[in-house]
Amino acid sequence: MAALLLPDNGPVQSVFPWGKSAALVIFIIASLTDLWDGQIARRRKQETSFGALLDPVADKILTTAAFICFIEQKDYWGASLVQAWMVLLIVSREFLVTGLRLVAGEKGTVIKADLHGKQKTASQMVAIILVLLGLAAREDWHSFGFNPGRFNKVFSITVFWVILLTATLTILSGIAYLYKNRKILLQHA
User: Fold this and answer.
1) Among 21, 35, 93, 169, which residue has the least CB neighbours within 10 Å?
2) Phi, psi dihedrals of residue 77, rounded to the nearest 5°
């Protein structure tokens, strides 16, 4: 978050001019370690209830932090690069699912992430990487040599549609998750 939110000018920018590139690298490393952690645990048969609860929470913290920071970034027209309502939809789904997991956990039931949840997380991480790549290109790499104004306009429009698609997939996965676990939800209502 610190790398992503570095100011565009001032003394910090003159000392550390590659903030968006650093945020991109940090996010990719964090995403890969999250992926590898789960694969290693499954391969070694070291899956635990604690890990089943904590892994999705770590995913949510990682992705939510990025989406919230994107609201602070400006698009071609000077508005938020990512609309707050899209982030609200994504974060609301995450809180709802986490709440369901906590309720089930209190009753001794562990609800693991399903395929829809894993696909949702993957789509969010890909979307975040694309946005970070575009921000790095726009602010650190001088738009890959393209006309900066045109690059920024195309980038801003692309981000809108990518995040809208991501928010839609996130909501659909949440609906599928709630439907699949409706008995647990209704049982403890």
Assistant:
1) 35
2) -95, 0
Among 96, 153, 170, 162, which Cα is nearest to 128's? 162
How confident is the model over 25-49, as pLDDT tens digits?
Answer: 999 999 888 778 777 877 888 777 6
Domain positions in the chain are 11-187
Residues 6+ apart with CB under 8 A from 27: 62, 66, 125, 128, 129, 132
13 three-class SS: helix
> Which structure tokens are listed for 111?
């609800």
Predicted TM-score of the model (pTM): 0.85
Residues 162 and 86: beta-carbon distance below 8 Å: no
Alpha helix stretches (DSSP H) within the chain: 11-15, 19-43, 49-72, 84-106, 115-139, 148-180, 182-187
